[in-house]
Amino acid sequence: MIRLRGFKMSELKNLLEDKRKLVDKKATEYRQVRDDWNSRTKDHLTVRNNLNGEVRELIINVRSQRELREEKNGEVRDKKQLRADCNKVVRASKEKLEELRGGGQQKAAPQQDGHRGRREKKVTVHSLRRDMQRFEREFEMGRHTGKNEKKIMKKMKDIRSQIRSMELSEEGNEELKVVREELRVAMEAQEEAHIEVTRAAEEAQQAHELMIVWNSEVDKKREEAEDAHRRLRRSKKEADQAHHHYIVSIRCLHSTQSILRSIRGIESGSAPSKSAREEVADLMSKLMSGETLTTEQLMELQRFD
Is residue 236 within 8 Å of 45, Cβ to Cβ? Predict the structure, then answer.
């Protein structure tokens, strides 16, 4: 019976065979773990790339809304200037109308102070109509009841009479009619300009609010993409580690198989074919030198017996 440093050849053979099966099992497990992590890596890579694509699209939307907001803000400034010009025309028309209604003497004479030292406002058709509207609103709100109601009703009657009287006195004044028409046109232009300012301001605000929403979505998607990237790095690290263990197992397996082949050769008086030895030696040489072998080549080493 052949012995090798205290071991019977058969005992050593059985021991190595058990170790070979164990290492072969471990190599298979590491390969499966590696392939599983590689599969996860591909999934994480796809998710991360898709999220990064969404982030890029959202950033384009943010930029678009920002540009729209700036455009609308510029429009607001232009419309405000137009409205300011209309306000000047309205004021000039009102002043001209008041001058015509009050006569040259009233224009030259300063306004008289009231009994409390306050300047008395000029009475115009416009101011009378404004007072009438105020009293009508107060009546609708129920502010005037009882004796006060009769008092206000009489005041409103007087205001109507005063308005009719002033309008009749203005009917024969052609210049006054022209100025009133100018004022009407100016006030329409003023109102239209104000509407345009409001519209542009609302559109600018909408663009700003949408930009904020897109910005929030960018932050959210970017965070998801970063999380996917972290998972990608972890899965790649785990796959690399499992692959490293797989390579070590293949080396151990090959060493064990080489010893077993030598023992069988001694027992049978034969040896593996030269071509098989050369093929395995070539693969192991590449593996030991750090070269990358394909999965098929590694599995061939694992199967070689």
Answer: no
